[in-house]
Amino acid sequence: MKIINDYILKESKLSIVFGITLFTFIFLIEIIVSMMESILVKGLSVIDVARMISFYLPMILSQTIPMGIFLGIMITFGNFTKNSEITALNSMGVSLNKILKPVIWIGIGATLFIFFLQESLVPRSFIKLQQLSYKMVYENPVFQLRDKVLIDGFANYKIYIDSINKKTKDAEKVLVMIQEEDSQYPTLVLGKTANWEDAALSLKDADFYRYDEKGNLVVTGNFEKKRVPFTSYFKDMSVKVKDIEGMNIQQLRKEIEKKDRAERIPYIVEINRKIAVPMSTIALAILGVLLSIGNSRSGKGINFGIGIVVIFLYIVLLNIGVVFSYRGIVSPFVGVWTPNIILYIYTFILYSRKVRLI
After folding, report:
1. In terms of pLDDT, which residue wins out, 105 or 43?
2. Taking the CB of residue 333, how many other CB atoms lie within 10 A of it?
3. pTM, whole model, 2 decimals?
4. Which of left, alpha, beta for 53 (phi over 0: left; psi -120 to 50: alpha)?
């Protein structure tokens, strides 16, 4: 039996890798398109874009591994049926339960790996992604400076750029508002043009206006060149995972303790989702076998189509359940776990039918 198990595992490897790669690429298409825009329009390096995409991968893989395993198992056992290998195993007295054993281990291993991704790599990747974003802002102003946008992410500064020169990449008609601690009104600095130099905004032909506590103009002047430094802002920046999807279960539980009852719902939903999605892997792996084998080869294409419909319905039901949970229509447990319950019931019904035939 060990030889058969090893054979099934060996034949499944490439198909599973193909399935995971396919679904991962589909999920990455939107990100890749937006990154291409960043390369062409915002002047980002290909290396930085590749690093950003790599930091998205753990989160995407946690969602595509169950689907990839499902597709890979279907392809593998579809080939077994086509080549009459399942019939040969049956004639040797190999039962369906023994055939399913290595597949179940694949599902369990993938489930544990997804938990590892979610609890360890995903939070770290989100932090790395944020750090890389800050690095690009630090080194490349075009990524941060956009025309007709007020930027207020800097500590005591607000910046407004009227336009960006597409040829020189310089900002034009720039307004910088500097909030002084001893004044209610900000100091205004107006620059004809500006560019980024060593973590500082360098304004050329700049006028400045300072007001007293009553709002009266007290100081004004003109500079040929005025530097507004942001070095300390970048050096002292502490990065923290803010996106719920980038938190692990422990982080989510800590955030729940700080929230009131209404604000807890998204965090409770995410905790349930981080458990439910990996747990679907085992059922999908078994289902991939059950939909691919049988006494009749003519139904293989139909079974494959049914399999795609099943995984599509699972994703749709999960998203609907999450939305209903957010809106308070159903509890987070019911909204998130209902697709899994339906999936396992369908798998059990199909198993009951197949075990009597094989």
Report:
1. 105
2. 15
3. 0.70
4. alpha
